[in-house]
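Ticket #472: bound-state structure for adenosine monophosphate.
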Amino acid sequence: MKLYNSTSRQIEEFVPYNKDRVTMYTCGPTVYHFAHIGNLRSYIMEDVLEKALDYVGYNVVRAMNITDVGHLSGDSDDGEDKMLIGAEREHKSVMDIAKEYTDAFKADFLSLNLQWPKLVAPATSCIDEYIKIITVLLDKGYAYISNGNVYFDTSKLKEYYRFGNQNQDEMVVGARDSVTEDEGKHNQNDFVLWFTKSKFENHALKWDSPWGVGYPGWHIECSGISYKFLGEYLDIHCGGVDNKFPHHTNEIAQTESYLGHPWCKYWFHVEHLNTKTGKMSKSSGDFLTLTRLNELGFSPMVYKLFCLQSHYRKQLVYSTEALEGAKSAYAKLIKRIATLDRTDKSVDKAVYEKLDNQFKQALENDLNTSYALTTLYDALKADTNDGTKLALVLSFDKVLGLKLSTAFEAPKSTEPEVDADLKQKIETMIEQRRQAKANKDYALADSIRNQLAEIGVELIDTKEGTTFKIKG
Ligand code: AMP
Ligand code: ZN
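RESOLUTION: The complex was predicted; output attached.
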């Protein structure tokens, strides 16, 4: 497997610390609002990565956090706590907001046919872990207390920024929001590990700590959760490109200072989904959710196909026209698969292996999903029997997760659903009519038929008995 590594800025051969158990960590969502389809692009590509590793023979253990505390509207400890923004917006408690949007996120994940990571932890569930790490960082001299907060001291590091030649100005502003000066910091890039002197008197979530009652900074949660669930050697860390700085930079700083040795080997960053006018972001409020996309006529599988058609390291621009293209491609794909003869169980081993190898090579080439899709089309076009094609399609779908087997599901009935009470009533009247006819009371039988016709129910007499149809 070859993967681009954001630290070396090169495609590298993937060599995990332990080939029997690949550890993978994903930065989860900040649950103060719905995930937008840009966030979901990152999760789609991370899911494909996990499944691709699995497909080529690795055993992957994946963990993800749910940010329900500490993420401020500016990524560098400025602004307001995002969870409070959500709570104020909806006049609910922070806890209710976290539950509501964690559930919504999980529902999106499942609609996209993504595998929910084996280990998922809300940030608020691992406070002891952060306190343990911060205590060691203070003991080792990597952290200091100032103005009531605990800060990480970036001046103690030989190399702070690991993702290339970002100049000092860019680092301060970061890829995300703007930064305002925090007077407690000794150096510009220092960051908060633990807030005791909350900027927000109304901060709902607070815990006791050796430094006073307070709450953790955003970055420490990923270090803590990753360490707790995946141990001190991490193979792959994922996130969107905006996470490189300051979030991932700070995670590396504090985790390696705590552990005293290198930590994560491969950094996998997904480029942004943009709208024609710029980056899609939750804070701007100008974003599309999966539900909205569905209302616009684009199913989760159509959106997923749209994402898989391009490489994860390229920016992707959302447009209705592009989604229309993916919609028609998906419909054609399903239609083509539906024509395959499912009773053909024979598989031509040579053809199967050739195409399966081509598919693996696409994945192993820095997750080239568009070439993986080409291989899917190649399989459908191949000069071979339906059994071989079907075996390939279903196997590839373990990674692509495009629900390709739905091609064989019976099309959903277009008949209107009949309410259970109404059905009961109609069946009772059909029985009364049958008895009336048996008693030769044809006037009553006709009157029952007319009463049903008035409410739009048409009776159909057959040799086996009477059935009914609701007129549309
Ligand atoms: P958040 O909920 O804001 O913490 O973001 C969740 C994930 O989505 C992170 O990995 C972000 O880097 C990623 N992300 C944010 N905006 C976008 C975007 N427009 N396109 C792709 N990924 C994004
Ligand atoms: Zn994170």
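RESOLUTION NOTES: The longest strand covers residues 60-66.
TICKET STATUS: resolved
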